[in-house]
Amino acid sequence: MDDNLMDKIVSLCKRRGFIFQSSDIYGGLSNTWDYGPYGVELKNNLKRCWWKSVVYERDDIFGLDAAILMHPKVWEASGHVQNFFDLKSDCKSCKKRFKTADLKDAKKCPECGGELTGSRPFNLMFKTYQGPVEDATNVIYLRPETAQGMFVNFLNILDSKHPKLPFGMAQIGKAFRNEITPGNFTFRTREFEQMEIEYFVKPAEADKFYELWVNERFDWYLKLGIKKEGLRRRPHGKEELAHYAKSCTDIEYNFPFGWSELEGIANRTDFDLKQHAQAIGRDLVYFDDVAKEKFYPYIIEPSGGVDRSVLAFLVNAYHEEKVKEETRVVLKLHPALAPIKVAVLPLLKNRPQLVELARKIAQDLKKSFVTVYDDTAAIGKLYRRQDEVGTLYCVTIDVQSLEDNQVTVRDRDTMKQDRIPLDRLKEYLETRLIN
Ligand code: ATP
After folding, report:
1. Which ligand 1 atom sits closest to the C-alpha of 250?
2. Does residue 239 carry a pLDDT above 80?
3. How far is the CA of 372 from the centre of ligand 1 (A)?
4. Can you list the domains of the chain with their CATH numbers?
5. CB within 6 Å of ligand 1 — which residues?
6. Nearest atom of ligand 1 to the alpha carbon of 248
7. pTM, rounded to two decimals
């Protein structure tokens, strides 16, 4: 792997408008990122693909969009107030803070060699106050996971949708963790987005569905183009399991900084529903009307990060190729993920008729595909720009087009060019782009 790959990706993301440092003009807020025009398209496409595969293409999973702010008792019942912490050590000299688990020597500061404090628990939840009074009774948290929003809606889904087991809920949304050591670009941040499923099953079937979901989620990344050799499953050892999990497997991607988690699939047992039931003094059970029995379902949770996936797809798509002694940088993103599907590029911008035709073609195509029009440089440069952001097809309009009503369509990956009559252009693109 190219040693400078991360630097190249960070630089491309800024240069081309995928991802910017947050609050850039103020010197930036460290480890916080804004998605620019192409980044937001890529991220939305990724979320759409996930939603399509887990909600629209199934009939047993319901979508949800729960609030970020939740009753503070949720986080007591879930165990987050008690258990959601990392151990930290502080340097007595330079005052830097470290995650104890990352330290080679628990006594010595890795930066300045100073003495470290003993390790102390540090709760990762962001705390704030609801309403104008800043006192202990008004403490509220920014959710550290979207999952709890689904557990607390379990009865609402039972009462409104009357589903039979197995069934699930899915949601995408922001989560916040006051990470001690964020870093690696968008890989570990304090504000991030999750895509989570809570799948409710009969306890006896939990192991079966756990395996199914590990495979299902693994295949989803492959289907969207992640190379097989860059993806692996890593089952957790017992000592690594979160307080709520009976088993967990991470799906890891081989990032330039090493194998790291993209998504975790956990068997959360009946822990969450029982905890909330105990806290509210009311059953949160499922009634099986065939067996005529009530019980707490088990929950299988595939929990992925949107930002980490976006980063993995960017790394996976980045290619440098030699074309006629020059390096072509191209993002070979899956067609469903590519931010821009079509670019319309007039070969000459000083011919009003040609520009007018090109603009009209772009305007027509915009109704069907995400299309951009660009005439601000010579064709070589225009192609380079589109390759770098992963645009699938470039349609060029030349002088000949004015006479024969044909345009040239260039394929991003093969660079092969086809001459297509204008009245067949939409159909030509449709057969290649609609998946
Ligand atoms: P890690 O071990 O990397 O801290 P985790 O096991 O705590 O992650 P989970 O609680 O399983 O993560 O969260 C589910 C998913 O949410 C992760 O697989 C990851 O994709 C995403 N995620 C978690 N923490 C962050 C973060 N700080 N920044 C970006 N994404 C995150």
Report:
1. 18
2. yes
3. 35
4. 5-68+151-314 (3.30.930.10), 340-433 (3.40.50.800)
5. 145, 177, 179, 188-189, 192, 194, 261-264, 303-305, 307-308
6. 11
7. 0.95
